[in-house]
Write a structure and sequence with these properties.
CATH topology of the largest domain: Rossmann fold
CATH superfamily of the largest domain: Succinyl-CoA synthetase domains
Number of helices: 10
CATH class of the largest domain: Alpha Beta
Shape: globular
Number of strands: 14
CATH architecture of the largest domain: 3-Layer(aba) Sandwich
Order of helices and strands: EHEEEHEHEHEEEEHEHEHEHHEH
Helix content: 25-40%
Length: about 300
Amino acid sequence: MNLTPNSKVIIQGITNTLSTHTAFTMKSYNTNVVAGISPGEGGQAWGNIPVFDLVEQAIAQVGIVDTSIILVPPYAVLDAANEAIAAGIKQIIIVTEGMPPLDVVSLVRKAEATETLVVGPNCAGIIMPGKLLLGTHPTQFYTPGKIGIISRSNTLTYEVAWELTQAKLGQSIAVSIGCDLIVGSSFLQWLEILDEDEHTEAIVLIGEVGGGSEEAAASYIAEAIDKPVIAYVAGVHTPSARVMSHAGSLMTSRASSQQLVGAGTAASKIAAFKAADIPVADCPSAIRGLLKKVLGKK
């Protein structure tokens, strides 16, 4: 990962309402948004952002681009991402919700083959407080500091950041990896990135019911991560016999109905963290106390 305040950023799908709002919010946070992409609408200027039909046209004008923010409709995301990868962009953030799962699988394979970092889909992206905004994080909840946040939940990322901000525990970076069970980058990748980041002293990992990514993360932390990690798992009281709308809860409900005991449940995730000697917060407001304890020991 190579992110600095000077990193060049484009927004694919810039002319729809959400994309325009995101673009202007990022620009107001001093993110270096150099171009927007919207096929058929090239040649315009959206605010002070030039619009191009194709990614390669933008790169020809503005030079090498570090990151693309994708905000196109769900069934157009794969084409947009492939276009960005073909143009040599190595960091892609997909904010769009509802990307078809098989498209995500195809994109993940392409990203692995090209060493491209993909965040999302269905994510708020990345924020480096006071430096850089890549996505839709509400910036008022964040303040610069030394705590890294990795989360599967968009809104819980904001809530935890605000809890830390109120406790004068600033954040070095906050990453929402995506709310779907199939996403581009994993807890494991981001744990490695933050463990090597000189600006991060401790890590907060926010998980939720569904899938097995938290259990894998717990094992990886015990084996490979040197910095202190605090975990929180949302969904302790999620009813296992009811189908929920969120993808993680949906899969958990189905697993439970098929009598796959413990599969994807909050209990199994919390047990994995505790078995790895990773402190687990009972609620978001308890995270700051656990952080202060481990930082005090350090």
